[in-house]
Specification:
This protein is an all-alpha fold and 465 residues long. The chain is 37% helix and 2% strand.
Length: 465
């Protein structure tokens, strides 16, 4: 090979290397450009939306396990604090449990949850071995005779144990509700509390928006905007107008000096957050809002793993995606907004279910807000939430992932308001019943209540001796 040809090849190689470097740099630094090309493997179902925000977990490019641990805690830390977590880090920091860390390092989230490992990733993002419970609970048969002979693969069956949260499934709770009927005598959802405790919510901008009913001529929208009679009427009929929330409250945000910004015809979630900060915060923790939490564009149904309606594929999910603008109809948001996007078997079966019949009855009779069962009744349940250090109120949990998986977490927050515990556990373990949206009775029987009953009988016999 001549020197001329060699030089030519070297030149081509150098130019190709520079081009590759530029392509990689563009992929890494370019705005709106997918970085998934650099992933060593697919993300789990819970994190797949974050493939363009590597830095949300890898906050330090050269950091190790501690960096990833901090990233996990930043998003999921509140779930690892008692009473939310039955295996909190504090339990394993106790010197008496030091030997257990030799079997499984429960101080590190990545001991059980490793991303980019699709070949070993199970449901709920688990990458742990199936015998993880056995290492610490091999002698469970001695502590609880009712568990003798049970395989360690059954620990996580619906109605049994959830490593992080056993609040709805611990023995005392099972015993308390073990004889509840299939349908409760007075089924109803808890009433939400917002207006009733508004004076105690210090974060609410009371000075700017005192609670008082606004009339038609009180609307403070610019004249050009106020000419749209349908928008004006929608606002006037809402809880916003009845609570003193004027047009400027959404269309003009306030800075730290309480000065109004210029008018914005299309306000974003920051306007909602002014009064509904807790709801927005919870929304960003769920699959619907998690992209917004890390600075990405809103989620679109086309990016979901479940079947979605093609007509809604490119709709961006924000507050007004479900609630609409100006009217903010919670009835529409509770069902129709969900079904505009979701087209999986469970969702499509809802309108043929007894739950939908109750929902229709509530709408037709203008019944109380707790008599029907909507999509939101179960997937965005009304829960007691600590707004701050001194106030707890019943609110709609806008983190629709909080009770989604494992689905046994739904028992306390939703099911037992209307159904007995045994019925609820069986229904959530019956995959066919879930797919037809609970149109019928469960055909699955979970032994958790039976085991709790036996343990309780032995306890009572021992106490009576």
């Amino acid at each position: 090979m001549t020197k001329k040809n060699t030089l030519k090849l070297w030149t081509i190689w150098v130019l190709a290397s520079i081009l590759l470097v530029l392509i990689f740099a563009y992929q890494l630094l370019g705005n709106g450009v997918s970085k998934a090309i650099f992933m060593p493997g697919d993300l789990s179902m819970g994190h797949h939306q974050l493939e363009d925000a590597c830095e949300s977990c890898h906050t330090d490019a050269f950091g190790g396990g501690e960096v990833l641990q901090e990233a996990c805690i930043n998003c999921h830390g509140d779930q690892r604090i008692k009473p939310f977590d039955s295996h909190p880090r504090s339990k394993f920091k106790d010197p008496r449990n030091a030997s257990r860390l030799e079997k499984i390092n429960a101080l590190m989230c990545t001991s059980c949850h490793v991303e980019h490992k699709p070949e070993i990733t199970q449901k709920d993002g688990l990458t742990q071995p199936i015998d993880v419970c056995f290492h610490c609970h091999a002698d469970i048969g001695e502590e609880r005779p009712s568990h003798v002979g049970m395989e360690f693969t059954t620990c996580k069956n619906s109605g049994c144990h959830n490593f992080h949260n056993n609040r709805a499934l611990y023995t005392d709770f099972l015993v308390k509700h073990m004889d509840a009927p299939m349908h409760m005598p007075n089924p109803h959802l808890p009433e939400t509390e917002f207006v009733s405790v508004l004076e105690e919510i210090l974060e609410y901008p009371h000075d700017s928006y005192p609670v008082q009913t606004l009339q038609s001529n009180d609307a403070d929208a610019p004249e050009v905007s106020n000419k749209d009679e349908s928008i004006h009427r929608d606002w006037l009929e809402t809880a916003h107008a009845n609570a003193g929330v004027n047009c400027s409250a959404c269309h003009q945000t306030r800075n730290e000096e309480n000065e109004l910004s210029t008018w914005n015809d299309h306000p974003g979630m920051e306007s909602c957050q002014t009064c509904h900060g807790t709801e927005v915060e919870r929304f960003k923790l769920g699959k619907h809002g998690m992209r917004l939490a890390v600075g990405l564009s809103p989620m679109m149904p086309k990016d979901a793993k479940l079947p979605m309606n093609k007509n809604a594929a490119h709709e961006e999910l924000t507050c007004t995606s479900c609630h609409g603008a100006h009217r903010f109809d919670t009835t529409v948001a509770a069902v129709e907004s969900c079904l505009e996007c979701h087209a999986d078997e469970h969702s499509l079966a809802y309108k043929d279910s007894p739950h939908f019949s109750l929902w229709q009855q509530q709408i037709v009779t203008n019944g109380s807000s707790d008599s029907g069962v909507s999509c939101a009744s179960c997937h965005m349940p009304r829960v007691e939430y600590d707004v701050n250090d001194w106030l707890t109120r019943v609110m709609v949990d806008h983190n629709q992932s909080a009770s989604l998986s494992p689905n046994s977490k739904m028992i306390r927050s939703s099911c037992i308001h209307c159904h007995g515990l045994g019925f609820s556990i069986g229904a959530l373990a019956d995959q066919e019943l879930i797919e037809n949206n609970f149109n019928g009775k469960p055909s699955v029987h979970v032994e958790s209540i039976d085991l709790a009953r036996k343990d309780n009988e032995k306890y009572l016999q021992k106490m009576n001796k």
